[in-house]
Amino acid sequence: MAVELRILAWSCVLLLVHIFAAAHLKTKQYGTKWNMGARDESLPPLDPVTGRFVRAQANFLETYPIAIITLIGVVIAGRTSEWTAIGGWLWLGARAVYLPLYGIGVPVVRTIAYLVSMIGLALIFQAFV
Question: What is the pLDDT of residues 40-53, one digit of tens each?
Answer without folding.
Answer: 889 899 999 999 99
